[in-house]
Amino acid sequence: MDKLIEHLWPILKQITGYIYPNEIELHWGILIVIYPYITGLVAGAFILASLVKVFNVKEVQPTYRLSLLTALAFLIVAPMPLLAHLGRPERSLEIFLTPNRSSAMAMFGFVYAWYLMAVLLLEIWFEYRRDLIIWAKEGKGLKKWIQRFIALFSTDTSEKSVEFDKKAVKAITVIGIPSAFLLHGYVGFIFGSVKANPWWSSVLMPIVFLFSAIVSGIALVLLIYMVVTLVRGEELDIVCLDKLASFLFYVMIVDFSLEALDFLHRLYESEESIKILAQLISGKLFTSLVVIQLLIGMILPLIALASVKLFKLPVELRKHIYFVSTLLIQVGIFATRWNVVIGGQLFSKSFRGLTAYKMTLGGAEGLLVSLGFLILPLLILYVLVKILPPWQVKVKISSN
Amino acid sequence: MDKIDFKIKRREFFGKFFFVAVSVLFPGALKGKKDEKGHFVRNTLREVSWGMGIEIDKCIGCGRCADACKKENDVPPYPFFFRTWVERYIILEGGEVIVDSPNGGVNGFKPRAEERKIIKSFFVPKLCNHCDKPPCVQVCPVGATFKTNDGVILVDSKYCIGCRYCIQACPYGARFLHPETRTAEKCTFCYHRIVKGLVPVCVEVCPTQARIFGDTKGRASPLVRFMRMNKIRVLKPYLNTEPKVFYADLDMEVK
What we know:
The structure holds two protein chains of two kinds.
Chain A lengths: L8 H4 L3 E2 L12 H24 L10 H14 L1 H7 L8 H4 L10 H31 L2 H10 L8 H34 L12 H27 L6 H32 L4 H9 L3 H25 L4 H27 L1 H4 L6 E2 L12 H21 L5 H7 L1
Chain B lengths: L1 H24 L7 E2 L5 E2 L8 E6 L8 H9 L11 E9 L4 E4 L17 E10 L7 H5 L5 E3 L5 E3 L9 H5 L6 E2 L6 E2 L5 H4 L6 H5 L5 E5 L6 H8 L2 E2 L11 E4 L7
Parallel strand pairs in B: 3-13
Antiparallel strand pairs in B: 1-2, 3-11, 4-5, 4-6, 7-8, 9-10, 12-13
């Protein structure tokens, strides 16, 4: 057993003040940081896709399919860090088979399955059905069969059927928006409903999670769109970029306001926990919260995006600003998740002391596995894009 | 007289005969009652709800309770895992509070050399509060942690998936993850002992009887008497978990 607890000894020396002895081991590590980060990207990317279909924002059409595929790629990976983090992963199916109805976490399986099966897969299927049939007709070899299979061997490309597809996509998107809200709002609820933890316990938590999710999703799709288009040697659609950046800017304002409200509310109410939380923010969480989340991940991109709106900047400069801003936003949102999950466990529930988090390099909950979970969705996205090209069909046919 | 006696005996005899006959013919009919969670419930004459009283002024901080608990319940012998532990509070002139619990108090406490004047100092034994409204039971996704019908919070280690949501939900830091089984662990009030009519081992070994174990509902239990005779407080009452570990003369600094 000595080996199993080796990593805990050095933490003993880093404790300040008094913490309950069982609190020395910090239980939700980097994997649980990744989980809300990834589901946030899923929800955000889907909300972006719904802008096109439900709210008829024609300018962002070039990113519609890309955002659907991005959402799917990340959704496939979303449960993996959770599974890897379980003490007894072989029993994970019990969450589906014998869920405890009073547990917020028990709902995970159902929310996840609903979102994957009833929303994302269906919408992608209806959206791609006609194209798949056409590509399968013209393609050959294994890819042809994969595409035929994904189209579920449907062959009807009549106008009537395509019209039905369009209607179906719209209907699913309408259901999809509240579902995406549910998916990520629910993740926020898992934290927000823990009354034992004053850093988490907040009714605003699901809403803050949601808006930061939309911010991260739009920023990610924008980033992927820029990179992919440049790699393909195509021209970036600047109208689309401007529109996306504009949405991003407004959602960030809302997100920032909500977080500021949360902060002010805590400060003004100044409950029992305020002393230890202040110690936390000014100490162990200062770099990740104030520097990375707030300055680098929020204020800097906000200023950059605002300057695009205020001044008539040249196209090239705008592209650079968008690229850097979305990159910074990703870092910022990741830090946001970190500060919620890790930050919430760094202080003792005795409100008398702080502990430390030591990430390991290897192991199921180590840095390498975590990086794997962050890279894996991009690989899945690559495969998805190969099978289901998100760009105009014409381009695809001419290149064949 | 003799005849009447005999009649009663005969009635008893038939009663017992019937009982045995039924149990042989229909063994299923004698299965115990189950509660809403499907756990067998022992028929007791009155409802029991186990709890514990702790008299702060009697605790001398010897740590025998924490030590005995580790031995009785095979708690890993490292300073990161405790089903019960003892905290020492030192309140200095000017109001500064120093709290410590080296190795959970298992080895007792060494005197501290304080330059400033100590106003008061006391020990506080801690353990799972076996809340009447347990947040850990509420959040367990698979129902592996549950409340028995006699009011004890237990973990089914064969069912726990090790998600550690219960550890996050416990306001008292009473839970840990067993490093070998990778499942949640906590104080059981020594359930294996109390079902045999014994008291939890921490109560058994306490040299000053600072811990009192008993039924919170019974009229004549030592715990009820303790609760009647003392001014008692529970930990973090504002969280509405309704703890069943009651402290007498608890200082406001204890959280």
